[in-house]
Amino acid sequence: MYSSKIAGIGHYVPKNVYTNNDLSRFMETSDEWIQERTGIKERRFADRYEETTTTMGIEAAKVAIERAGITKDDIDFIIFATLSPDYYFPGCGVLLQREMQMKEVGALDIRNQCSGFVYALSVADQFIKTGMYKNILVVGSEKHSFAMDFETRSRNVSVIFGDGAGAAVLQRATKEGQGILSTHLHSDGADAEILAMHYPGAHANKWLKDKPAFPDQELGGLFITADQIESGAALPYMDGPAVFKKAVVKFPEVINEALAANSYTAKDIDLLVPHQANLRISQYVQQLLGLPDDKVFNNIQKYGNTTAASVPIALSEAWEAGKVKEGDLICLAAFGSGFTWASALIKW
């Protein structure tokens, strides 16, 4: 069995900056209201017509590949994590492969929302360990802005999310004790609907039960209806307080699970990179683990919640700032819709 390491990390964020005050032009909100609840000061929004989830992922991938010291022709597998794909199908993995003119390698898409990158990292780790692949490109990318409703009715959701992408190249570790030590994945679908985008979806015909679109047909229906769009049913939904309560339990739980599995304690962590869901959640977890400020990396203030992209963007920024060095013990952790949660412990 081989161990795997992150050989290169990179990220991309759009140039368009929207502050909290900018959002107050479209909805009833304020800088104070948003910062108090989330810690977010601004976020980036992709160009509406020129940038997609795939194109942002490509920009991050280029950086990660270069930093890994390889070329796109060395990539032998792609894993792409996102909840905001360019198309409902096919997934972004094959679109990235096409646009980067890669050889005919496998491409896997992961739909685990905020936990997507850590889940993808775990999958890549297994492939490297078994020797099936040598250079795996793992991407987390999101273009939330195109699906957000910037009216007051949706402010609890729309003020939180931003766009961006992060990527990593996984290879075999070359040193004993180096690389990904373990990954830990969990889910509980009991409350799946309290953080979800319910439509469009294959269950949409429930909406048509009492008003069938095609009364003379037993089969078929509408993927999404005008009523669903008009009523707001087709918009993302989140019960914020319920998500918060679950997250503050599962975040520290999965971090401690990773530490215990490798005979470490929180004191041994050199840097914790949590999913950037809410600064208040990160601060609560930091306090619970007894970690000083310099051992927790947060950038939600600048980018908002970029879902599957948030962990790789934060890890890339931390690496660029010199906060991730060879030999450091790095912990990644995420919690999100599903609910799913995950952690990875890495000896850099």
From TrEMBL:
<feature type="domain" description="Beta-ketoacyl-[acyl-carrier-protein] synthase III C-terminal">
    <location>
        <begin position="259"/>
        <end position="348"/>
    </location>
</feature>
<keyword id="KW-0443">Lipid metabolism</keyword>
<dbReference type="Pfam" id="PF08545">
    <property type="entry name" value="ACP_syn_III"/>
</dbReference>
<keyword id="KW-0012">Acyltransferase</keyword>
<feature type="region of interest" description="ACP-binding">
    <location>
        <begin position="276"/>
        <end position="280"/>
    </location>
</feature>
<keyword id="KW-0963">Cytoplasm</keyword>
<feature type="domain" description="Beta-ketoacyl-[acyl-carrier-protein] synthase III N-terminal">
    <location>
        <begin position="108"/>
        <end position="189"/>
    </location>
</feature>
<dbReference type="InterPro" id="IPR004655">
    <property type="entry name" value="FabH"/>
</dbReference>
<dbReference type="InterPro" id="IPR016039">
    <property type="entry name" value="Thiolase-like"/>
</dbReference>
<keyword id="KW-0808">Transferase</keyword>
<comment type="function">
    <text>Catalyzes the condensation reaction of fatty acid synthesis by the addition to an acyl acceptor of two carbons from malonyl-ACP. Catalyzes the first condensation reaction which initiates fatty acid synthesis and may therefore play a role in governing the total rate of fatty acid production. Possesses both acetoacetyl-ACP synthase and acetyl transacylase activities. Its substrate specificity determines the biosynthesis of branched-chain and/or straight-chain of fatty acids.</text>
</comment>
<keyword id="KW-0275">Fatty acid biosynthesis</keyword>
<comment type="pathway">
    <text>Lipid metabolism; fatty acid biosynthesis.</text>
</comment>
<keyword id="KW-0444">Lipid biosynthesis</keyword>
<feature type="active site">
    <location>
        <position position="305"/>
    </location>
</feature>
<keyword id="KW-0511">Multifunctional enzyme</keyword>
<keyword id="KW-0276">Fatty acid metabolism</keyword>
<dbReference type="InterPro" id="IPR013747">
    <property type="entry name" value="ACP_syn_III_C"/>
</dbReference>
<feature type="active site">
    <location>
        <position position="275"/>
    </location>
</feature>
<protein>
    <recommendedName>
        <fullName>Beta-ketoacyl-[acyl-carrier-protein] synthase III</fullName>
        <ecNumber>2.3.1.180</ecNumber>
    </recommendedName>
</protein>
<dbReference type="Pfam" id="PF08541">
    <property type="entry name" value="ACP_syn_III_C"/>
</dbReference>
<comment type="similarity">
    <text>Belongs to the thiolase-like superfamily. FabH family.</text>
</comment>
<dbReference type="InterPro" id="IPR013751">
    <property type="entry name" value="ACP_syn_III_N"/>
</dbReference>
<comment type="subunit">
    <text>Homodimer.</text>
</comment>
<feature type="active site">
    <location>
        <position position="114"/>
    </location>
</feature>
